[in-house]
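Bench notes, afternoon.
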Amino acid sequence: MADGMLVSIRETQPAPARERLLYLDNLRTFLTALVICHHAAIAAGATGGWYWALPAPPDSESALLLTVFTAVNQAFFMSLFFAISAYVTPASYDAKGAAAFLRDRFARLGIPLVVYFFVLNPILSWLIVRLRDGDAAGLVAFVSRDYGHLVGPGPLWFVLALLVFGSAYAAARVASGHPREVTGTHPFPSDRTILGFVVGIGLTAFLVRFVFPTGWDVLGLQLGYFPLYVAFFTFGLRAHANRWLDGLDRPFVACWGRRARWAMPLLLATPFVGGIGQVNGGPHLAALLYAMWEPWICVGMSAWLLVLFRERWATQGRLARRLSRGAYTAYIVHPFFVVAGTALVALLPPQPLLRFVVLCALAVPATFAVADGIRRLPGLSRIL
C-alpha cells in the first residue's frame, strides 16, 4: 500500500491450520447485535430507511441522538463486517479449492438470500401491514395482490455483496494460477499511508455519489457506500496475507481514536453547511464533508474494536460460542423481531430513546435465542 513497501513475495506451501481467531468471532457477534440495535434506532425515530419506523415528536432531541448513533454505525460497522469476512476468505479458499469454495459460498450465502428475497421479505411485509394497519387479509391473499413489489433482499443486501466479492476473489485466484494464498512480509501500513487511504476513499465516495447518492439502491445495494466497503474487503485480504492485525496496537488505536473524536463534530455541522438534502451526494460541500467524515470514523472505530476484542474477548465460553455460531442466522431473521418489537413499543409514550432501549432489550436476546434454535434444525446447520 505504501511507497517502499514492495518486498519479495513467496507462495506459501500447505501449512498447518491456524487456531481460530475467537476474538473475530466474538466481534462479529457484537456487530450483529449492533445491526439489530441500529435498525431498532431507526424504528424508534432515528433518520434512516427501515421497514417500519415510528414517527418521532417534532424537534425531538432523543431522535437526533439516535440519528447520530445510526450515522456513526453506518460509517464503520458494515465496512468492518466486510473486512472480517475478507480476512477469513483466503484460508477457506485454500482449504477447499475454487470449485468447493464457490459451492460452499453459494450454499451458505445464496440459499438464504433467495429464501429471504422471495419468501421471507413478502411475509415480513404482510406482518407489518397486519401489526401497523390492522389489515386482516390472509397471507396468500395479501401476497397475491402485488407479489412483484414485495420481494427484495432487505438487510441481506450484505449477503448479496459478499457473494459478489467472494466470487470475484475466486476468479482472481484462478486467474493468478496460485494454488495457495500468496503471502508476503509487507509491514503494517504507515500512518502516512493510512491518511492517504482515508482521504482517497473519501474523495472516491464523494465522486461516486454524484451518480449514486446515498439512499439510492439497486437490489438493496447502496452503491454510494461501496467505495469504503470494497476498500475494507481488500484490506481484509491484505491483512490476512501479511498478518497486519498483529500490527494493530494501543498507540495506533489512541492516535486514530483522537482523530475520530476530532472528526465527530463535523457530522453535526454537515447539514448546516448546505442543508440536509445535500448530504447524500452531488457537487455540494455538505456531501464532501460527509464523504470525508465516514472513513475517518471507520478507521478509528474499526481499529479500536479490533484491539479491544483481541485483548479482552479472545476466548469463548459456552454461551459466547453458541452466540457466535448463531450470529449469521440472527442477522438473517432479525427484521422479524425488530418489527414485532416495534408493535410493542408503539404502545409506549412517544419518547424515541425509551422506545429504543426497550426495543433493543426485546429484540437482541429474542433474535439470538431463536436463531440458535433455527440453526439446530436438521439440514440447516450446514447452511447456517
